[in-house]
Specification:
Helix content: 55-70%
Largest sheet: none
Number of domains: 2
Strand content: under 5%
Structural class: mainly alpha
Number of helices: 4
Distance between the termini: 131 Å
Number of strands: 0
Shape: rod-shaped
Radius of gyration: 40 Å
Order of helices and strands: HHHH
Low-confidence stretches: 35-46
Length: 162
């Protein structure tokens, strides 16, 4: 049996706890204290959850900052890493949300990078097209003028006209 107040193990026939002096009620079931929980975990082969939720909070915050472009690329990557580190802690749910947001943020940023590269290629193509069009527009009249001069000039002329 366990103490009603402090949760330490006491014998079934004790009416007072030796540690805290609390009177014991025989009809009440008491959950064992933290020390006995740790012993139960060791017997079952399970590891107790870390009470800290720091990794989960970091994962969530970094992922959100990454999606909002305050910390591009690094934010979602940190969100994914800290989301994985938050496993088996009290912040596991926050970490899972951070992990998912990190993956979404990294996907969005990857897509943005690909679109920027495509836009740059298109811009370069448009720039080259503009240069080629300018050259063509400038050269064709010059070529036509040269052809026109060559065609209109008589073959036996001295080059002076009156």
């Amino acid at each position: 049996m366990y103490c009603n107040k402090c949760g330490i193990e006491i014998s079934d026939n004790q009416t007072y706890c030796e540690k805290c002096s609390k009177e014991q009620n025989q009809n009440v079931e008491v959950v064992p204290n933290q020390k006995s929980n740790e012993k139960d975990y060791k017997q079952k082969g399970e590891k107790p959850k870390d009470p800290s939720n720091v990794f989960g909070i970091i994962a969530l915050v970094m992922s959100i900052l990454g999606i909002l472009q305050f910390i591009p690329l690094i934010g979602p990557i940190c969100g994914i890493i800290f989301g994985k580190l938050s496993k088996n802690t009290e912040g596991e749910q926050l970490g899972t949300i951070g992990l998912i947001l990190g993956i979404v943020g990294l996907s969005i940023e990857s897509l943005a990078i690909i679109l920027a590269i495509i836009a740059g290629i298109i811009e370069v193509g448009i720039g080259l097209f503009s240069i080629i069009a300018s050259v063509v527009v400038a050269i064709i009249p010059a070529i036509l003028a040269l052809i026109g001069i060559a065609v209109s000039e008589p073959s036996g002329s001295t080059g002076t006209y009156y």
